[in-house]
Amino acid sequence: KQFHQRSRDVQSKNLWTHEQKQQLKQLGEQENPDWESISKQLNRKTIVCKLMYEQLTDKQWNEQEENILREWWEYHDKDSKKLKFSEIQNLLPEHSLYGIQRRLLIMM
Q: What residue ranges carry the coiled-coil annotation (predicted)?
């Protein structure tokens, strides 16, 4: 009985199950994934699927990469609304845009 209650709680909060995450990883790894189709299969919004995929596949950061990110951040005007994250993404191609922004938040 507890299991069913927990299952309903997860569904009501719309949390990702382990199985859904695995399915998302498999579907996202296809060449040129069709995110609209993937989102329909998982009954989620497209942007939510993309963000979760990036979170699931984001690589670990090493000290050198963090130093590159820190130097870039300190060099640019932090108050600017025109920060070009594509610039730093070119310097750190192993990391997704989501991963870079997330790491910046963690480092602050």
A: none
